[in-house]
Design goal:
Blueprint lengths: L6 H18 L2 H22 L18 H9 L1 H25 L3 H4 L1 H4 L5 H16 L7 H19 L3 H6 L10 E4 L2 E6 L10 H4 L2 E4 L7 H17 L19 H16 L14 H16 L2 H7 L4 H7 L12 H19 L1
Antiparallel strand pairs: 1-2, 2-3
Helix pairs in contact: 1-2, 1-4, 2-4, 3-4, 7-8, 7-12, 7-16, 8-11, 13-14, 14-15
Length: 352
């Protein structure tokens, strides 16, 4: 029982790992177990404080609990437990804040979300990988096949903002009967409600059928070459309709692997410190969706419209929108229809 009422144990663990956390950058990995343990201890101590009969069982522990502290605790058991509870609460809040701060996607990309066009950062990530892929025209090595896949995924994500679970399900067939298809010289993505997370919402129930913009006149070049030979090269003889080929052994990405893949792509691109990244180091798929939703909300001042861009509802859009602009006054569904067109026009400027 002495262990349960000794915050010093947790304090020692906390202090002893501060240097390790800073050195390895594993704040969440170390802090989250502490948060869970202290959360449990708080419940135990709160219960013990209501049970005075346990006071007599408290024993001294060398280095943690002295005989004097035991006598004081036994003389005022409820007050003693309240003091322990307050100390655990302090540790809990500190560790929880440290653990979550490192994984707070808004804080990681807040500088991007505060701009008028957050999606410029996503387009810039695509440009980085597209330029690398297109620089090797004529090379049909496996390495370049992967570069083309990198560019295609970064580009599609910058336009669609799909969750990894939806992204992993995307397919393509040569007869244009898959999710990705070509119509009148334009690439489009058609996703049925069953492949969207919120298929029961109004936006999700109608599925998705959107134009894939030719970002900077590069995405179509990357996409068409990828489909022409690079995708088959990565399949290495395997048969699969998956759009983004993970490898020959298991062609289709898992949702977790695809999410990690985009994060790696963003990190590699953002190392160059381009002004469109505003000092940020990486973006994950949650950040991608936040960028798309926030940009649309900034244009329309409408959660409903932001949700539509993510093929979601207004309530869910509130999770993704980072509200920082004070001059959002327009509210028109027409603006959503023009957003993609504006992206194409804007990315031509960004490329300059």
């Amino acid at each position: 029982m002495a262990i349960a009422v000794c915050p010093a144990i947790v304090e020692n663990y906390w202090d002893g790992h501060k240097e390790l956390k800073e050195k390895l950058g594993v704040h969440a990995a170390i802090s989250l177990p502490v948060v869970k343990a202290v959360g449990l201890l708080r419940n135990i101590v709160a219960w013990l404080g209501q049970q005075p009969r346990f006071a007599r069982r408290l024993k001294a522990v060398p280095g943690l609990l002295t005989e004097d502290q035991v006598r004081l605790a036994q003389a005022g058991w409820e007050a003693f437990c309240q003091g322990v509870l307050a100390e655990y609460t302090r540790i809990y809040n500190g560790e929880k804040g440290e653990a979550t701060a490192k994984n707070d996607q808004v804080k990681r990309i807040e500088a991007i979300l505060k701009t008028e066009k957050p999606t410029k950062a996503l387009i810039r990530v695509f440009y980085h990988h597209a330029d690398k892929a297109l620089a090797g025209r004529g090379d049909r090595s496996e390495h370049r096949a992967k570069l083309l896949r990198d560019a295609v995924y970064a580009g599609v994500e910058a336009v669609t903002f799909y969750r990894p679970e939806t992204g992993r399900r995307l397919n393509w067939t040569k007869d244009d009967n898959g999710h990705l298809y070509r119509k009148e010289g334009t690439w489009r993505m058609k996703v049925p409600p069953s492949d969207l997370k919120n298929e029961k919402t109004l936006a999700g129930s109608i599925g998705d059928d959107r134009k894939i913009n030719d970002l900077g006149n590069r995405l179509y070049d990357c996409l068409e070459e990828y489909l022409e030979w690079a995708r088959d090269a990565l399949l290495a003889g395997r048969v699969s309709d998956t759009l983004f080929v993970c490898g020959a052994v298991e062609p289709r990405y898992t949702a977790k692997a695809l999410g990690s893949y985009y994060r790696r792509l963003s990190r590699a691109a953002m190392k160059d410190g381009h002004r469109d990244y505003h000092g940020c180091a990486e973006i994950n798929v949650i950040g991608v969706r936040k960028a798309g939703a926030t940009e649309t909300y900034n244009k329309t001042n409408s959660f409903e419209e932001a949700g539509k861009r993510l093929r979601n509802d207004a309530r869910s859009a509130q999770v993704y929108v980072n509200r920082v602009a004070a001059n959002q006054t327009k509210n028109s569904t027409e603006l959503i229809d023009t957003t993609d067109a504006e992206m194409k026009e804007e990315d031509m400027v960004v490329a300059a």
